[in-house]
Design a protein that fits this description.
Three copies of one chain form a homotrimer. With 271 residues, the first copy, chain A, is an alpha/beta fold. The first copy, chain A, is built from eleven helices and nine strands.
Chain lengths: 271, 271, 271
């Protein structure tokens, strides 16, 4: 399946025209940078977690992003309520299982959300995908200690088991829905030196899922755009502080021409 | 009433000399950027929400800013306690009803704080002011879906009903206390592409209210300074990430000369 | 004791080679900037506070940093649990008693954590150290209202009482373990115009404590590196917004050569 089969620029243009609302129940560390990433991309963020209002807010949104970064019991309850309501209403849910494998609370919560909410897209690093797939005893935590290649089998298995798209991000990103797979070679090592770039990638994936009904295409397009923005930023900043700001700028600056010139990815049928 | 009637530069000079403490009970998304906006302006932020300590902290502050952005029950209780104590002590309270109209929780909380705390200044976007004024069924949430002009009548009614100043921010800002009105034509569209600029405007308004007893003048001066800083920033940054940083720089950089050259506002008696 | 007695560059090189995990239970305002400071320095942050998981997470970490900035009851319980577990496992704990003296809740919590957790390093501004030492009735809050010199006696007394290292930061930083003292003359006034630089200094101190067993040396080296990074930043940014970003860049950029050229500190035996 050739590269042209996925018109990333067209999906991005749709996103910028529609400015979808993306409801995030995410961690404290990245709330600001995630909201800014969505705004820079052209989407519109809602960050809210009170169990009394999440159903009302998710209903007006184009996607819901659940992120386990700074988990606690009241937030888990709100994630579950929001997630069930979103899925019932046909609103796509993206799950970012931050640090799954590092504590029982995270592992239990991630599995429970998978089973009950049935997210459309799961986005994690290799260690998180391995932990969720049951292929490792424990992870070092929020760090990815494994390569994307090591997580490929787990990703495919998770995709098939749950009928969802799984996106594994790292030096090379990998996306699968069990039938198709994409490999994305955009991005830059400095992305790993800024907190919350993975979380922002998940939120951006949510924004794409709000406008692109094919979740596999949405996740692939999101990671291509995010990676190209990351390269745009690396041409303008050499250290992590200014790089994080330039990455936000890049999400705004990246054009259809940039994507045509710089996107490096392949999509193929799995077998 | 001519423009010269309000000496914004003099109020800003007082603020920078006194460095007022501003106590914020605000949302998770903007805590960092709000604290940085206050510091850049020359004020001193306190961010604290524990119900056990808010009375002690508000007592040492020059103003209290209540922001409903990431509302939850324990925070509402702390806002109410802090707000009642501030008003009892004569410390000005600024209310930012983020997302009011988007959920019953937000609408009920905003109304309850208005009635019980009696804030001196209400600062919102047009949709929020309309929702609080009861002139619309619902809002899309944190986005302003209406123009400032549409919210003018609601703003005046709210100002008269509650005996407070209402500041509506948007492409043109509008401030009223029911007797006077100001229109401020400073600012830049990129402000809408950075999360928390409205919240920062509310906090900056709190800092001005801490040093300027006339709440109408405080709100007007705050929005002029914030808008001029926004223009200063737009000359230095073209994309949202770096623009957000430049806006903070602008709050520090704006001088009396900049205000004289760039402030564009009118104040007049309402009738 | 001459300056050469402490090889800051060597400790920094070890830190960057080992990339220690630093577990932070810190305030909402600075979570993002603290995580970014640790990443920029070369360490790896965990930010997590759920009482159900803090023991598991602290166990995989090289240091634990407890910060009282936006205190509330559930967080105090998590801090205590994490702190007790860290100390029991020999993992160094750094305590940052933000705003101690400004409310009974903060003062009681700071004292209780000192007594029960027995942190290895206490890092605060002069007002906080004086408040903890019992030498003042109250503080203005998160602002330092006193000079480091005024807090010296309290710092030494606290160090001796609790058998820990005390680091007081300000225009000149002061570190003591009751037997030795260091004075560090690096840094820049703009650091006080960015929220969370003190909190970031505490987190950076935790990262150094994770690789340097002598807590006095760890704290001294951390503040030298942080101060040199602050000077690096001041050569690149003149206003608080861009300065905060440049400070993150500086934590990444500072080299052994920079330290050799710019570090200005003295270490001596107290007597």
């Amino acid at each position: 399946m050739p590269k042209q089969s996925l018109d990333v620029a067209a999906i991005l243009a749709t996103l910028r025209a529609r400015q979808p609302l993306v409801h995030n129940i995410t961690n404290y560390v990245v709330m600001n940078s995630t909201a800014n990433a969505l705004l820079a991309l052209g989407a519109s963020p809602i960050m809210a977690h009170a169990i009394e209002e999440v159903e009302e807010l998710v209903e007006m949104s184009g996607a819901l992003v659940l992120n386990l970064g700074t988990l606690s019991k009241p937030w888990i309850a709100a994630m579950l309520k929001a997630g069930l309501h979103a899925t019932a209403k046909g609103i796509p849910v993206v799950l970012d299982p931050v640090g799954v494998g590092a504590s029982r609370l995270r592992t239990d919560t991630a599995r429970s959300l998978l089973e009950q909410v049935r997210p459309v897209i799961l986005r994690g690093n290799a260690s998180e995908i391995l932990a969720l797939g049951g292929d490792m005893g424990g992870a070092r935590g929020v760090d990815a200690q494994h390569t994307v290649a090591q997580a490929r089998q787990s990703a495919v298995a998770l995709a098939k088991t749950w009928g969802m798209t799984v996106a594994v991000t790292g030096a090379e990103d990998y996306v699968t829905d069990g039938r198709r797979e994409a490999r994305i070679r955009n991005g830059h090592p400095l992305m790993g030196r800024v907190t919350g770039t993975g979380c922002a990638a998940s939120a951006v994936t949510g924004a794409f899922a709000a406008v692109e009904p094919d979740a596999f295409n949405a996740a692939t397009a999101a990671l291509v755009v995010f990676g190209v923005a990351g390269e745009w930023a690396a041409q303008r900043a050499q250290h992590p502080g200014s790089y994080g700001i330039a990455l936000l700028d890049g999400l705004d600056a990246v054009t259809a021409e940039d994507l045509l010139a710089d996107a490096r990815f392949d999509v193929e049928a799995t077998n």
